[in-house]
Amino acid sequence: MTFEHPTQEQIPQLLALWKGAFGEWNGFWETFLETAFSPLRCRCVLEEGRITAALTWLNCSCRGQKLAYIYAVVTHPEHRGRGLCRKLLADTHRLLEAQGYGAALLVPAEGELRKMYEKLGYHTCSYVEEFSCKAGDSPVPIRAIGTEEFKQLRRSFLPEKGVLQEGENLTFLARQAQFYAGDDFLLTAYTEDTQLTAMELLGNTAAAPGILRALDCKTGRFRCPGSKIPFAMIHPLTQDAVVPSYFGFAFD
């Protein structure tokens, strides 16, 4: 067993592993490879030339400290129960610390995984709220914006000690969703038929019904900063690690 960055020849193995574990998602993983993936931000467990477990990460930051958003942690079904995830994370933590990262972040998909990561040294640092509503009677002023303007506006809308997710994060995100700005809110969302899914709504959440009316959507589901739903977890890598209060995009 060795821990390595994947070679170009091993990328198809990695893609098959993700699709088998998480689903096809209509070209989602191909888009991830095109926009946000780097072999140097990916670690794999290799056994007899085959990838039996893997993870990747994206760069982010909080108050100037470099953080790693660990993503797509996966173990091949035939190799689960052997502690490969624990060993892979330990190897990755050592690598990240050596590269100057202050902490690792991740967002468990379910409660049982949250318990597992707690045993591996992670603790919840960020909470969100989610709500659904119908379109209101009156639209609010709203406009579609580009990635660069969104990046600058999001810095001003983020809560105190919010995580900046820029670079490859925004390149990937722009292929999944549209960015919008209003007088007092910032929205990242995609639509399916007349249903809007807001991956993040910052600012005035009371604008949600008017947003739906303005975008010709009947209903919507919104995620925003809050205190109800446990979201991101952190594993400090240094004694002076910044612990963020809000983490927004989980690419789920």
What labels would you give this structure?
seven-stranded mixed sheet, globular, 252 residues, alpha+beta
Describe what is shown at a glance:
This protein is of the alpha+beta class and 252 residues long.
SSE arrangement:
Layout lengths: L1 E3 L6 H12 L5 H8 L6 E6 L2 E13 L2 E11 L8 H15 L4 E4 L4 H9 L3 E2 L2 E8 L7 E4 L1 H11 L10 H6 L4 E5 L2 E8 L2 E9 L4 H7 L4 E7 L3 E2 L2 E4 L16
Parallel strand pairs: 4-5, 11-12
Antiparallel strand pairs: 1-2, 2-3, 3-4, 5-14, 6-14, 7-12, 7-13, 8-9, 9-10, 10-11
Strand content: 25-35%
The total count of strands amounts to: 14
Task: Give, in spatial order, the strands making up the sheet with the most strands.
Answer: 1-2-3-4-5-14-6
Main sheet, how many strands, which sense, barrel?
A: 7 strands, mixed
Radius of gyration: 19 Å
Span of the ends, CA to CA? 30 Å
What's the total helix number?
7
Protein architecture, described:
The chain has 252 residues and is of the alpha+beta class. The protein has helices at 11-22, 28-35, 84-98, 111-119, 147-157, 168-173, 208-214, and strands spanning 2-4, 42-47, 50-62, 65-75, 103-106, 123-124, 127-134, 142-145, 178-182, 185-192, 195-203, 219-225, 229-230, 233-236. Strands 1-2-3-4-5-14-6 form a 7-stranded mixed sheet. The protein has a 7-stranded mixed sheet with strand order 8-9-10-11-12-7-13. Strand 2 (42-47) and strand 3 (50-62) form a beta hairpin.
